[in-house]
Amino acid sequence: MKAAVVREVGDADALIVETDFPTPKIGPGQVIVKNEYAGINFIDTYHRKGLYPRDLPFVGGQEGGGTVAAVSDEAAAQGIKVGDRVSYSVLGTYSEYTAVQAAKLLPVPDGVELDVATSCVVQGLTAHYLTSSAHADLIKPGEWCLIHGVGGGTCQWAALMAKIRGFKVIGTVSKGKADVAEGLGCDELIVLDEVAGASYEDYESVDIVARVKEVTGGEGVKCVIDGIGKSTVDISIDSLARRGIFVSFGNASGSVPAFPVLRLIGKSAYVTRPKLLDYIVTRDELVWRADEIFGWLKDGKLKVSVDTVFSLDDAAEGHKYLEAGKSKGKVLYKI
């Protein structure tokens, strides 16, 4: 089958499209999905660069959507049929076919297109756990949160979901993506200069902490959702209200450097470094999150912005586009 493969970690050109990669064989409890789309996410670039190591060689990606092409006896007993439309998250989605455990499948409801459903899986589920669970209920409806980079894919979702949850939202965004952010319903936008060729904004171009304190009447925010990393760690901690939580989930500007725990004493703050897999541990939790997302989509409370669709043949270009900060929404491969 055709697949985008990493045999040696490196820059985007380490992602090589091969046409004779072994097609997966079906195992107990699995289905084979014929992929129509694969999502491109920052975590895929971390795998490709070796920041999050994987055994070599590997097929890139961990977000897919398509139709069921083959069903194991165990999956058939659960009512899964050839031709079912599904989305899912497992490793190895930059390919024509993927073997997926039946427990990982999300049935795509009528009225939701496959490109949108594929976009929901990693970014949508990530935004869901960030706004519903990772903050450990330290923020309540009516309280302030700060979300960095709301012009990008995941944090567009997070801003929308935070508003659905009843939080008041301050979003940071680059000037080039301000038009996208203005449609998210943030209570306050902090517009920053751009960093040429980067996937993040110039976080020194505005005194964000001062602006946050001004907006919140000097209190700060009860939660910061931060996928930027190195450039924003101090801003995020300094923006917190008393007993607020710093949720650090990404590394767009580089990994968060080590800092002493005493750094949190000023406001008796909390910090967490979560990952999606720990928030979809059970089938029930996965389905609960997906059902809420699909329900919000059907009700018009969420709108997914598919920014660009690359052919899988142009796999490296998809990564370059994402890492250059050009996306204003979801970036996909058409398989």
TrEMBL record:
Q: Name one GO cellular component term.
A: cytosol
**Is Oxidoreductase given among the entry's keywords?**
yes
Q: Name one GO molecular function term.
A: mRNA 3'-UTR AU-rich region binding
Enoyl reductase (ER) domain ranges (all copies): 10-333
Q: Which InterPro entries match?
A: ADH-like_N, ER, QOR-like
| Keyword set, alphabetical order | NADP, Oxidoreductase
Name this protein carries in UniProt: Quinone oxidoreductase
Question: Which species is listed as the source?
Answer: Nitzschia inconspicua
